[in-house]
Amino acid sequence: xxxxxxxxxxxxxxxxxxxxxxxxxxxxxxxxxxxxxxxxxxxxxxxxxxxxxxxxxxxxxxxxxxxxxxxxxxxxxxxxxxxxxxxxxxxxxxxxxxxxxxxxxxxxxxxxxxxxxxxxxxxxxxxxxxxxxxxxxxxxxxxxxxxxxxxxxxxxxxxxxxxxxxxxxxxxxxxxxxxxxxxxxxxxxxxxxxxxxxxxxxxxxxxxxxxxxxxxxxxxxxxxxxxxxxxxxxxxxxxxxxxxxxxxxxxxxxxxxxxxxxxxxxxxxxxxxxxxxxxxxxxxx
Length: 285
Hints:
Blueprint: E1 5-14, E2 20-27, E3 40-47, H1 54-58, E4 66-69, H2 78-86, E5 93-98, E6 111-121, H3 131-150, H4 154-168, H5 177-193, H6 197-210, H7 215-227, H8 231-244, H9 249-284
Antiparallel strand pairs: 1-2, 2-5, 3-4, 3-6, 5-6
Helix pairs in contact: 3-4, 3-5, 4-5, 5-6, 5-7, 6-7, 7-8, 8-9
């Protein structure tokens, strides 16, 4: 079946990370199926104008036909290209147009990439995978997340860790709890960096449900409790950390900081109460 030229079809594609991007179909594809996460895709990605390190930003090779594993790009815009390609049919060509607040061409105009889906082989869906296949996928995504984390791209790292956890939690209760533990801890680390303290508590608690003696989970949850001024719970987590690792300097330092914060809060309350009662006594007289 021959592909048909499109009639200026445009839609917005969300990458679930930064924003939405306009996808404008140039040539319609054929068939009913579309690539999914993990699919092997033969693509040609052509930027409309050169950018320094464009390939690094996209996370996939440019200006040449190549095979990619969808969802493994670690560039800052990889998730946008993943979402775009997941919406395409065989033989489809489109323009992916980025808002100027995300990225611009050297002349200050919108940056545009032409994406051509030449062929693809769909990956198994989660429910079709064996436990071993899920474990491999979860481990791969964890490693990609760690790469992003070390490079300071925290939001993108969290996306990889969350995707890895999606596979790990379907393996079964006892088959690989270590992978679930590590991914939960890593998600908590990302959320701590982003000051999403409620999320830190949720994921550290999940980690502690797997390993109640995880000092990393106790330490990160304790830090989150401190930031939320829930000092009693923070103290409890730090105390258990020190029971497990008495010489842990990071925890010892947090305990010192926590003590200072508690003293400051107590002094503030004492000052506030003295003003209240002092004013009340003066009014009676």
